[in-house]
């Protein structure tokens, strides 16, 4: 009953804050008019938007079958890429200002003078983010089912209503501030779960109770190569996921972005260490018979840990933490997916469309995407982690290559940009269908996309004029 009451209060709080931050312009809705001046808000919201229910449930349970390699590789890559992301964040902010970009496809379009590339990237984002949303909705439904006692479908409906409400009302300002608060709740929930396992396992002596095969770097039920690939593909998103990059666009100045680089990596380190350790540490507390049901469905482990380890009422904190993980990510994803469809594709097809019309369509289409994703989540047999690693990996590949080269190499061209998108997306899909399963398709996508980018850029003369009709300034001139 307490969980139900807290959920109602949580939703009411989100709606009230969304109403307070309601935006009436397209620029305010999608980038908060570039007026966010609190580094902690951007840094912790960045963490919350990145880590979803897929991490809280899928990432927490995946160690049960992947073993120690999951902790090592997942924590290492997340911490390393988080630090790297905020090292280059000030330059990304500068470019968003220089090109007056409100979306990532728009930023790359103006950097490369390529409307075709913008539309292609927006289309890829629409497809792959929808797949990603399906995985997150699956996590939400599992969560509500385990901690509220509702059916799986009822859990989906609850998630749809919550996300749709505060997305439609508030836009990015609401997403940022709510994600900031949700990030704090997520950190508390992750520490509680980690602490509960350590406490029940006798402190650090818990590691002596874990079976030797689980602690082997060869992997438990999952080969270490697959674990390495999943960890790399997922954490690569920290550098290039559009739903994270728009948070950098919203900063008031470069100082805010720099100081956000303190809060972001620290919160990501704490959260990833606590959450990704749960599946392995569970072996030190529970018997093989107790864990057996979760070997085929590791996504259900975290609700079991919360109800089994924590005192009555404390599992409610875990419930709110997991809900926060899901809602912060879904709202940001829906925003960038919808704006890519309405602002980048619709405006390309109908340039005369007013911003007010685009804003209205952004709200409507966002709700449609939420409903469609939830519908496809009704029956998802695949585990969350592999599904997320492929969908996030495709988007990260497609954005990472033209973004990084665009920031640091002024020789890139429209041809290179478009070629990299086609090569990255196509190679990942083909490798996923026909390639060696021990080699993650994201590695193939990065290699093929980079080769295509360099080949396309070097084969074609660099354009002189930028999209806005101004002479292209050197990359360092800011």
UniProtKB/TrEMBL annotation:
It is found in: Cell membrane. GO terms for biological process: sodium ion transport. It is a multi-pass membrane protein. Its main location: membrane. The chain crosses the membrane at residues 6-21, 41-64, 70-89, 119-137, 143-168, 175-197, 231-250, 262-286, 317-337, 358-378, 384-409, 416-434, 440-461. Keywords: Cell membrane, Ion transport, Membrane, Sodium, Sodium transport, Symport, Transmembrane, Transmembrane helix, Transport. It comes from the Archaea. GO terms for molecular function: symporter activity. The keyword Nucleus does not apply. InterPro entries: Na/Glc_symporter_sf, Na/solute_symporter, Sodium:Solute_Symporter. GO terms for cellular component: plasma membrane. Belongs to the sodium:solute symporter (SSF) (TC 2.A.21) family. This is Sodium:solute symporter.
